[in-house]
């Protein structure tokens, strides 16, 4: 076994790292800021492991946590031990914690959010400056998901700017650890206050729904706060990148953009291919083996940590062929990605993410069909966020409105 591949917290060469991971094989040893783990980079292996009940999410099963080698001083601790929620439990407990959020985001229920998505999209487009370089991420892609998830969960508008700062500090690996822990504590305070307010006076939002027992066993305050925090984090960090990465991919592929604008390629195909080729989540931390798990010619040892390296998984040549590194929305396997996960923890917000992106993208390109990058693509940089595929900015020239 070779040296574990050290994952770069500053994300200076994401393509290079994705390739190195894939070439290292479907399961490979990595180093996460000093902590060892397995990275899964093969799609078949990912699907098998994501359905294997011997892999669980509670940090209590992690060898490095039990030995004290990993503590709350580890910069990624907030990703692995964010408090009790549907994200950190398994089995029957998990089904109970997840039920209401999954029901709330069915396609039919989503129709109620559609007017919000349409309005916010129209307003953001109308507010874009008429001239000069525009950061499509800051001015368009970022505000939409934050607003939508806040409306869904009932986060007051006044709280949103500070939330944005706190989550940004949470994810960035340039944030000193004491500041990160302070941001986590502040988020927890804000959400706890919000949950207590809804417990006293319910409103028409998902936080209030999480508090209603509905005949079943009620969730504890910690569980409601945990679910709320998970939904806001997931809802606002990931969809931004889906929109940004799709815009970037189309600008880099003008022939395909023309086919999309001519109606020869659907927006849905663009989204699926973006999810495969440049997904919002680079690495999903973490699962732990409750016993030795043999997979192919590898054995994951009891207590070892397992990371799903979704960006490498999307480039699996066994699934997508020798041209897996090419962005091609017409490829037959475009929707056969695993980017939303698989098995019991599969993303419950997937339909909402797709609804937001499939509103935002046609609206943006419909109004600005000449949209093009303001800098060479090779100059775009990622934020220092190990787990997320998050560009710093997406500077464009809008061109004349249609
Ligand atoms: C952030 C911190 C927190 O309070 C709660 C959670 C649980 C859900 C996690 C979230 C985390 C980080 C981003 C995740 C999200 C689920 C989906 C999202 C991992 C740890 C993705 O990026 C896929």
CATH architecture: Orthogonal Bundle
Count of alpha/pi helices: 18
Computed Rg: 21 Å
Shape type: globular
Quaternary state of this entry equals single chain
Could you tell me the CATH topology label. Answer: Cytochrome p450
Average the pLDDT over all residues and give the rounded result.
96
Terminal-residue CA separation: 57 Å
Number of domains: 1
Share of helix, binned? 40-55%
Alpha-beta content class: alpha+beta
The major sheet is characterized as:
6 strands, mixed
InterPro entries: Cyt_P450, Cyt_P450_B, Cyt_P450_sf
GO molecular function: heme binding; iron ion binding; monooxygenase activity; oxidoreductase activity, acting on paired donors, with incorporation or reduction of molecular oxygen
Organism: Saccharopolyspora rhizosphaerae
Subcellular location: Cytoplasm
Question: How does this structure look, described?
Answer:
The chain is of the alpha+beta class. The chain has one domain (5-368): Cytochrome P450 (Cytochrome p450, Orthogonal Bundle). Helices cover 48% and strands 10% of the residues. The chain is built from 18 helices and eleven strands. It has helices at residues 14-23, 43-50, 63-66, 77-80, 91-104, 107-110, 114-126, 136-141, 143-153, 160-171, 177-200, 206-211, 221-252, 254-261, 267-277, 310-314, 317-320, 350-367, and strands at 5-6, 27-32, 35-40, 55-56, 133-135, 284-289, 293-295, 298-300, 305-308, 372-373, 395-397. The protein has a six-stranded mixed sheet. The chain is globular, with a radius of gyration of 21 Å. The relative contact order is 0.18. It binds progesterone. Progesterone (STR) is lined by residues 78-79, 82, 85, 87, 229-230, 233-234, 237-238, 281, 284, 388. Its main location: cytoplasm. GO terms for molecular function: heme binding; iron ion binding; monooxygenase activity; oxidoreductase activity, acting on paired donors, with incorporation or reduction of molecular oxygen. It is found in: Cytoplasm. It holds the Pfam family p450.
